[in-house]
Amino acid sequence: MTDGNRCCAPSRGGGGPVVEPVTTFASGVHATTVGMARLDAAAFVMGSDDAWAYPEDGEGPRRDVELSGFWIDRCAVTNDDFGTFVDETAYVTEAERFGWSFVFAGLLPQDFPPTQGVAAAPWWRKVDGAHWRHPEGPGSGVAARGRHPVVHVSWNDASSYAAWAGKRLPTEAEWEYAARGGLEGRVFPWGDEREPGGEHRMNVFQGVFPSEDTAADGHRGTCPVDAFPANGHRLHNATGNVWEWVADWFSASYRARDERRDPTGPPRGDNRVQKGGSYLCHDSYCRRYRVAARQGSTPDSSTGNVGFRCARDA
Length: 314
Known about the structure:
This protein is an alpha+beta fold.
């Protein structure tokens, strides 16, 4: 049922019921570049040889990449955005089809019924009835979180939304270039200091993980998609808040030297790439809240700290 090798966002592991085909719908009827940033063709250095990097993630080595121009959402897709998609298409997410999703235990009420945890990361709980409309399970809702990023969406769900919107998921290279905001080789979208001058620049875990979140940055759990200042490419919350699905298959060892131009990653795999870290990242155990950081998860996986943003060709 669970794959505990990822403390940041566990994988569903490919188990469970066979998921039925998704609802069909007319794609691209809402195609627009409103809320997107256009980035011209450019070259940049992708990846990291940082001492903070995790060898199993395959961030390095740093390599030169050339990209064609593209558009990318300035913010992650919100609950309101996703709700419009669902209302118009009757789409049912994979978490709803499976009947459960992963929820961070620290967000559950103290009187919440006992739940099954991930062995290697017990702060992750299997919660029946948790999905995008009920992020912490039955009794929770998103009415007051319309501008928060949608969560409990799988890679397959994200791809379906993108197709409906006349967009696509960004490649990992496009995502990382956009997230860097024009800064070469920096750790974060704004530079190398996590909190320059004591100012919080992203939504990550504050306090003693996983038992005490002081919310010193102003947020417990997700925050609005534009809660922190944009980077140099006008993107908000490229690090922290929620992990974001990208198009590529994940591999820690794939190095296509001939993929310098518009790389798309391995041709196949078991996991898809997630980028950017989330509100659960904490330097005591996980420093994946950096622009070069990455992890993989099965395309059917969903958790309370993973969302996405879209891209489209220029």
